[in-house]
Structures are given as structure tokens and as C-alpha cells.
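Teaching note: in complex prediction, the entire set of molecules is handled at once rather than each chain in isolation. The prompt given to students was simply: 'Predict the structure of this complex.' The entities are:
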Amino acid sequence: MSPLAAQMPALQVVVPMLMAPFVLLLPKGLSWAAAAAASLLAFGIAAQLAATVIDSGPVAYQMGSWPAPYGIELGVDALGALLLVVVTGASSLALVGGRASLAAAVTEEREHYFYAAWLLALAGLAGIAVSADAFNIFVFMEISSLASYVLVAGGPDRRALPAVFKYLMMGTVGATFYLIGIGLIYMATGTLNLADMDLRIAGVADKEPILAAAGFITVGLALKAAIFPLHVWLPNAYTYAPHIATAFLAACATKVSLYVLLRFDFFVFQQNLSGHALQFSAYLMPLAILGILVGSGVAMFERNVKRLLAFSSVAQIGYIMLGASLVSIGGLTAATLHMFNHALAKGGLFLAIAALAPVAAGLRLKDMGGMARRAPWTFAAFVVAGLSLIGVPGTAGFVSKWYLISAAMELGAPGIALIGVMVLGSLMAVVYVWRIVESACFGKPPENAAQAAAVPRPLGAAIWAAALANVYFGIAPGLPLRLSSSAAASLLGHVPT
Amino acid sequence: MQVLGIYYYWVFAILLMIGFYAVIAKLNLVKKLIGLTLFQAAVFLLYIAMGKVEGGTAPIYGASAAVFSSPLPQVLILTAIVVGISTTALGLGIVVRIKEEYGSIQEDEIQEIDRR
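The expected output is the structure of the full assembly:
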């Protein structure tokens, strides 16, 4: 390995994090270019790391060459690599395509602050994915959260402010719960390194504080990940944020918290707490099922297009949790694959919304009237991503739902009921995606609609890139599938990590 | 006196619940933030309390004492305090913006204005 390649896990965080203050210092016209360049570079690093992980297994990195568990360790395994590709990919696509849309949402004198916050959010999210240390995860989680509060509140819509206040409250409570959990584990084991924790918890005689820690960590992260019924911060935050920021955050922010949740529950607690699998399923499966049904149900009756998609996100997080709560190789493969595929679909949809919003007068369903004629290409891409969200064969969404259904089949009779829930959820998705399509194809354009504004070229390209990725990974899911199945295997401890 | 002997953990739990109550029950956004700060401060106390070893001194190389307190929790909490301050500052900043836009910092009044 070349000297530079060995530093990849650290560079993954350092590049966007160092670029953030530079964006503030650079002349204002350059802030977008600098942010986009840093994001693309981070994407390159993530792709390189993913290739290394596929070829030669997990990458470990000792910060400052101090050996773990005394030094701080960074580690990228299959799950982390998948997450990194999602996070940096979503950020790059949104930044490259989003310049015009962001210029409309963020005033020029505040633009460089916004891009600096964007890079900090990216650095934080990437930091969570590379970190192998529980406390570092907390710090990165707070960096990404604080920066994403700024992103959400950066737009012109004043309703974003109460929404972001609620997001801040719930996010901080979640992170503090996580901190309490870490504290309880640290009291019992004296370590913060995740791998070391796993080893030392096994030797702890009194497991009750560990059980309490597992509860605190799971609930805290469930808050951050917007698992039903702790999702109440999500719809308004996504609805009133600048469209491009929504596309970025909706694609990856909640998934990163889900990743930490899976890491803790499977790497650290699974082998060490008796009956952990049962408790995990008994707690999360009902919430996942309710999340799918309630999220999709609300989305069916929602009138604002962005809020409709936000409630659909609540439902999709339900699918991911449903897969994880099966606690089987198949279930976890489906869950991690769905993280990737849902990011593709939802990222594409929100990017398309960013393009359609200036053409439409507003974001209500009836504002979408006649959109299929007013912006045919963009709307076609919207439909492709929408089909992937539903899970139509030939799109990425179908692959992960297929794996989810086969994982449920392994359960036998109770699995049939779960499949019923999934099919019902998908049918509800047909309804809510169709409502948008119906309005766009058959609805009348509202009278105050803007005259056919052109969709900026880079945004159009980004939307089509997302839409085509949905189709590509629907037909050739090999790459994410390989990462997610090896992630599932290592989560369940079938191979040494 | 097992229960009273760990009074510092009781302080942690009670402070945590006072803060959490304010976060949930208060409608004034600044009061909510005060609650959040208490909530976080309680967790800081949890960490500080666990690092203290009875009769232990600061772990300085070459010191003659045999018993040391663990310095790591304090270092962790130093970081967490910084995080807490940033959160509070950002939260207060948002409250100022809310006051500018809505003319109120009462959650129910803001919801009323948005509904109109």
C-alpha cells in the first residue's frame, strides 16, 4: 500500500473538515467551487476505501500511530465503506447539481457560511462512519448535527426555524442519551474502543449497567435516526430546509445514525448480553412495522410534496429496521442494502423537487399540475426514482425489498405476516407516488405558475445520474450487495472482524 | 448506607430529570434550552463522579502517591462541555431568529401563527 493510500481513513475526515474554514477565507465567489471540490475529493477517497475493503477486507488506522485501545482507532469495514460512499456521493451530487438552487435559497453574503457548514456536516457524517471509538462517534455526531441544523435553517422559509429548534432539542437529547450509555459502559469496562468494549464486556460480572447502557444507546440513536415514534422532528425539518440540503440530509443523515445503532447492538452487545437478539427484535420490530404503516399512511394523505416524501422516509427507515430486527444474515443484508438503495431513490427524488420547485409556484400537490408537460425530462427522472422508492422490478428499490422478503420467508409463518406488511407498505407507496404523478400528468397548471423556467443543466445532470443509478443498481446490484452481505456477516460475528 | 453513599449518582439522576422535564413541559423556548443545558450538565457530573477515586490524586508522573484518579473522564467531559456550549449557542441563535420572524418565543403562539 502506498503511503498516501494508508492515510485514507484519516483523510476521509480531514479533507472536508480542513476545507470548511478555508471556504470562509476564500473570496466569496469561490466558496461553492471549493466545497464541491472537497466533496468530490472525499467521494474519491470513499470509493478508494470501498475498493480496498472489497479487495482485502477491513482497514484499520491508528491515529498518530498510538496502538489501540490506548490510541484512537479509525476503522473502515464493509458497512462503513458502504456508508461512506452514500454520504460522500449524496453530498457531491447535491453540491454539483445544486449551485443555482442554493443561490436562490441562501443570500449571497451568507453563502460561504452555508458551504462551510455543509463541509462540516460532511466531515461529521464521514467521521462517524470511519470511527472505531465510541466517544469519537459522539463528537462527530454532534459536529454533523450542529452543522445540519445550520443547513436546515439556512433557507428563506421562516417555518424552518421552529422546525430546526425541535430538531436541535430532540437531536441533543438523543446524543446525550448516547453519552450516558457510553458513560455506563466506560464505568464497567474502562474502554471506549468498540472492539475492546466487545471483549471486555464479556468479562464484566454484573451486566445490569450494560443492559441500561444498551437501552440508553439504542433509544438515543433511535431518536437521531428518526425511528417511529421518535420521528417527529423529521417531517418539518425536511420540508422547510433548502431543497438541496434536504436532498443531502434525507439521503444520508438518518442512515448514519442507523449505522451506529447497528454497530453497537451487533458488534458490542449481541454476543455479550443474554437474550439481546430477542430484546432487540421485540423492541424494534413493532416500531418498524408501525413506522412503515403510519409513515406510508400519512404520506398518502399529505398535501405538501416535500412533507409527503419526508413521511415516506419514516416508512423507509421502518423497512431498514425491519430487516435489522430479523437478526439474521439475510435480514441485515437487506437492511444495509436498503440504506444504500433508499439513499439513491430519496436523494434523486429530493433533487428533482429542487429542480421542479422553481418551475412550480409552490410545493403543494396541486402546484405540480401539468408538470409532466412543463418539465418533462426532470419529471421523467422523478418518476424513475419514485418507481425505485415503490420497489418496482428493474430498479434498486426492488432488489432490497426482494432481499427483505426472502429474509422474512426464512421465519416461516410469522414471516408471511411481515411480508404482508411490506406489500401493504409498497402498495401505499404506489398510492402516494401516483398522487404526485397524477397531478403532474393530468392536473391543470395553477394560474399563477411561472412560465416554463429552464432547469439548470448541472442539476438536470445530477438528477439523471441519480435516476440512472437507481436503474443500474436495480439491474446490476453486485457492488452494494457484496458490501452489504459482508457487512451483515461481520455484524453477526460469522467472520472475524 | 448503600443508597446515600452514592449520592453523586442521585444528583445526576435528579438533575437529569429536572432538565428533561423542562425540555418536555415548558413552552418558552429559552426555558427549554435551560432545561437542555441542565440535562447535559447532569451527564457531565456522571462522568466526573465516576473518574474520582477516593483518596486519589492527580496522575502526575513521578508523584509519590500510590492512588490516582482517572483523568480520562475529565478530558472526555471537557470535549462534551464544548459540544454543549456550541449547542446552547446555536439554540439561542435560533431563538433570536425565531423572535425576529415571529415576534414570540412561546411554542404554542408560534404554532398558532404558522397555522394561520
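Point out the following to students. The mean pLDDT of chain A is 87. The first strand of chain A starts at residue 59 and ends at 62.
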